[in-house]
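Researcher: Can you fold this with iron/sulfur cluster in place?
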Amino acid sequence: MSRQAKLLQVLNKEIVGCRKCPRLVEYRECVAREKRLAYRDWTYWGKPVPGFGDPHAQLVIVGLAPGAHGSNRTGRMFTGDRSGVFLFQALYDAGFANQATAVKRDDGLRLKNVYIAAAARCAPPDNKPLLSEILNCRGYLEREIDILQPRAVLALGKIGWDVFLGILKHRGAIPARVGYRFAHGAEVDLPEARMRLFGVYHPSQQNTQTGLLTPAMYARVLGRVRRFLEQDPILNPEHTEKRKKTLAQGRGRR
Ligand code: SF4
């Protein structure tokens, strides 16, 4: 097992045992006891949901928080709810996953070059974690970023975007969050952090069922993320050299 994989394993164990937010502990456990009728045969996870994906990922996805009957039931990020159906199909189509479906922890899903994290790890009432709960949980995302040192971060929604920028501000990598406005398709270079941040609308049912968010919109952004990673001069110096040569040859022919 690689160093990153070991560190993530230790971190994930810590996350799963976390009880820092009394309101969320009560809610996640209550949902797990009471269950939804359709899932009455399931043993709900009912604990914080750790990060999931490739321990050598160059892309980290920052979601919001587990769904009460989705990952709070299955124990894996975005697994078992409508948001996950949309997200994993998009990741599969863009070549970041080996399959398009995610139904339970042992369903064979593997992410390629992607690690999924979140602003909060426990299912919140009404899908809305409090600011204090997000701050309680932020350290876990910081540690994931430190372990993975990704070249790209994709924020699923404004909360993920703000939380990630909050980490950079706290570390002095950016002076303030105000210059970085969230929008679907937003993209900013963060040279101090040696990475690029991308933003997309969260794949919640509210967004996907109203047509605010479509598969084509995710495909465009994921395509840009992929091209960025493929052409990144730090990750692919060879590609950059080839590109420089091609450009120089083009200029020579003019
Ligand atoms: S939200 Fe995060 S900090 Fe709060 S109890 Fe869950 S894992 Fe712990």
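Model: Folded with iron/sulfur cluster in place. The mean pLDDT is 94.
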